[in-house]
Design goal:
Radius of gyration: 30 Å
Order of helices and strands: HHHHHHHHHHHHHHHHHHHHH
Distance between the termini: 84 Å
Number of helices: 21
Length: 436
């Protein structure tokens, strides 16, 4: 008959229930009481409800089990691809079905995010590979469209990191059309919060901050927990770009316990560094001092020299906030030398401003003037975006005339931290009465 065994079992159970509910054929049995009939009805209804409850639960567990297996296999396949030259990876994807799974597409797309910070070119190559895997993936057309939409969202992110905002916007538009067209083909395998989070990051880069915050909130609502820490970190940075240090700080505090420092040490270190900086910007140096140990520990675990230099910088900021001016000055001088040697322009400019505040508070305007002259290489090498250069020019002009004030420099410091997330932001001097 082509029926599975469980269907026969269900039929036999129904027949048995019918016999139990009926009267004897000779009609001599006593009629069933209303209570008995009600018990039977409730039992039947309970059984149906239990079936309706268990069936989707077992389906979910089965799907998740298969998804976990596919992702583990994708990890293995990625390790194989990772060790091969780019052209060989392409050949393997084109020629072998085992390299066309949805989970491998997802893994390669995730690798593009990790690669983007150090190599935008590598990130763009990886998303190209992910898109091709999605196009060749087995399954129904709707599923392939959904998978392509997921890959194209990552292509948008790679273009954003490379500085191509128009190209990123076009890629996102294509991604959203594919993603929505394939919605019926997705049993819930692909994480929608990743898609929404990457869209929010682009909207932030486009200075569409209100829209970015809406997308972040949508992503947080869709998230099952895996991506929540990163989403909150992105939200904190949007608040930072808007100049809302209080909301940025509270959001960073919420995100901190969700970022596993063993699995994602770089993100954990960056988050805690930002938190300490925010506290210093809010004149909460005593609170910041309590967080320094965490940052120091993570930086030492990573073992990267530049991270340790930045920890010294943080110590200087905390010391300045606590009134330990000489300790702060020594820390800033040390960091300034290190950053100048590495030609890290924006951080060098910031530490010069931090040092200038300390010196101006001590009445040492002539030394601030000397610092402004030592910053000329930033203008020559053009390693800072246009609006930031204009802000630096304000400082240098005031310092050379020895009319720079600590209040002006503090405004510039606040500006530079915002401008790191909003390069088009212009510096505007706030009258002293408005800063109180």
């Amino acid at each position: 008959m082509g029926l599975p065994p469980e269907t026969i079992d269900n039929t036999l159970a129904a027949l048995a229930a019918n016999r139990a509910a009926g009267r004897a054929p000779d009609g001599n049995a006593a009629p069933r009481s209303p209570a008995d009939r009600r018990i039977e009805a409730v039992a039947v209804q309970s059984g149906r409800m239990m079936t309706e409850l268990v069936r989707p639960l077992l389906s979910l567990l089965t799907m998740e089990g298969k998804a976990l297996q596919e992702r583990q296999r994708a990890d293995f396949l990625w390790q194989q691809l990772k060790g091969k030259p780019p052209h060989e990876r392409q050949v393997l994807v084109e020629g072998s079905r085992k390299y066309r799974s949805w989970a491998l597409c997802e893994r390669v797309a995730a690798e593009s995010i990790e690669a983007a910070a150090d190599s935008p070119e590598q990130a763009q190559y990886l998303v190209g590979l992910a898109v091709r895997i999605a196009e060749l993936a087995p399954g129904e057309e709707a599923w392939r469209l959904r998978l392509q939409g997921y890959a194209w969202v990552h292509a948008s992110n790679a273009r954003r990191v490379a500085g191509d905002l128009p190209g990123a916007d076009k890629a996102l538009s294509r991604a959203k059309k594919l993603w929505e067209a394939g919605a019926t083909g997705d049993p819930g395998l692909l994480n929608e919060s990743v898609v929404l989070g990457l869209e929010a990051t682009l909207r932030s880069a486009q200075r569409r901050f209100s829209e970015a915050l809406r997308r972040i909130d949508d992503a947080l609502a869709a998230d099952c927990g895996d991506f929540r820490g990163r989403l909150l970190l992105a939200k904190a940075r949007i608040f930072g770009a808007l100049g809302d240090a209080e909301k940025s700080t509270s959001t960073l505090r919420e995100a901190a316990p969700l970022i596993d420092s063993h699995r994602e040490p770089r993100i954990a270190l960056g988050l805690r560094f930002e938190l300490v900086v925010n506290l210093c910007l809010q004149d909460r140096a005593a609170e910041a001092a309590l967080k320094l140990g965490e940052v120091q520990e993570l930086a030492e675990q990573e073992g990267k020299e530049l991270d340790l230099v930045r920890v010294v910088w943080l110590r200087g900021k905390v010391a300045a906030g606590l009134g330990r001016k000489e300790e702060a000055r020594e820390a800033f001088e040390q960091v300034r030398r290190e950053l100048e040697a590495r030609k890290i322009a924006i951080d060098y400019a910031l530490v010069c401003l931090d040092l200038s505040v300390v010196l101006l508070d001590q009445g040492r305007a002539a030394e601030v003037r000397a610092i402004s002259l030592e910053m000329l290489w930033i203008f020559r090498e053009q390693k800072v975006h246009r609006e930031a250069l204009a802000a630096l020019q304000v400082f240098c002009d005031a310092a050379r005339q020895e009319v720079a004030t600590a209040a002006l420099v503090r405004q510039l410091i606040q500006y530079f931290y915002r401008a790191q997330h909003d390069p088009e932001l212009r510096f505007e001097i706030i009258p002293r009465a408005e800063t109180s």
